[in-house]
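Quick one, probably user error.
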């Protein structure tokens, strides 16, 4: 779904667009009969859009059935075309994280992480590639309140969630069934992205974690034109929790933001959110590109 919104801009200043995705369910037809019920993801998306609007951005909100692959990709591509150096794109996702087997050879654990959109998964390779299409110097803020589980949670199931909360993670048995039923589709997605990128793409979560040890990944990151700050809801070996009114991560983001009362930078903002979270869910902060100036800004600054 292409957005008809033009970027918000102060007179003579930078422009800003935002895209907020919140799924309280997915289509059972696309997920092997599993509909992935959650409670707070639509609240999360609307609350992030409210922050965006308060800071002068033009938000687009995609809730549950509107959160399709086509709509999300169109929203990102429209923003990539509209924004230039110094402009801001704010992307938030609240919903299930999932996995498909890696066929493009970029993941050491042989699994590609995904966002579970309504009618199919968005693979991390795709997300990285779509972000790479933004012009040089565009600032991109990504807040992801979902599970991108690593090898620990695949090897043994996560602990049961606290009362009133649900894990934002597609069950492993469902993930295997979905992949089996749609293998040709997901395999082709990965290979098409790798071919289009000219290099094996990596997702933002993985890039910074491995860049110090990998010359190949370092080369990919140096070719990445926009500047990305990614704050995700948990470590790869943890799970993000849903709630009744907000996801656990989003709830602490809202508290830290304090209706615009926060005036520190992204590093201190992440620290404030992280310190308020339980030990079982530790938000991550990663950057791509030359992000020093971006990180020094107050969050959500256009």
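Nope, works fine. Designed sequence:
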């Amino acid at each position: 779904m292409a957005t008809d919104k033009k970027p918000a801009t102060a007179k003579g200043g930078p422009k800003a667009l935002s895209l907020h995705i919140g799924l309280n369910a997915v289509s059972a037809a696309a997920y092997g009969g599993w509909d992935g019920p959650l409670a707070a993801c639509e609240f999360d998306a609307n609350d992030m859009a409210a922050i965006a609007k308060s800071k002068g951005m033009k938000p687009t909100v995609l809730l549950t059935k509107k959160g399709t692959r086509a709509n999300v990709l169109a929203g990102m591509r429209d923003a990539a075309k509209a924004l230039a150096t110094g402009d801001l794109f704010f992307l938030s996702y609240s919903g299930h994280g999932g996995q498909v087997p890696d066929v493009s050879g970029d993941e050491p654990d042989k699994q590609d992480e995904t966002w579970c959109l309504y009618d199919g998964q968005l693979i991390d390779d795709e997300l990285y590639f779509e972000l790479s299409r933004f012009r040089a110097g565009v600032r991109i803020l990504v807040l992801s309140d979902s599970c991108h589980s690593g090898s620990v949670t695949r090897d043994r199931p996560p602990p049961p969630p606290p009362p009133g909360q649900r894990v934002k993670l597609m069950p492993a048995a469902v993930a295997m069934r979905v992949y089996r039923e749609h293998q040709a589709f997901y395999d082709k997605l990965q290979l098409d992205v790798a071919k289009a990128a000219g290099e094996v793409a990596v997702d933002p979560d993985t890039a910074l974690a491995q860049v110090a040890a990998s010359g190949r990944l370092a080369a990919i990151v140096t070719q990445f034109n926009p500047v990305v700050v990614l704050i995700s809801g948990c470590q790869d070996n943890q799970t993000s929790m849903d709630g009744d009114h907000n996801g656990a991560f989003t709830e602490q983001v809202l508290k830290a933001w304090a209706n615009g009362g926060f005036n520190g930078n992204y590093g201190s903002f992440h620290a404030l959110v992280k310190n308020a979270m339980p030990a079982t869910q530790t938000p991550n902060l990663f950057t791509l590109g030359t992000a020093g100036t971006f990180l020094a800004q107050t969050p959500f600054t256009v």
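The longest strand covers residues 15-22.
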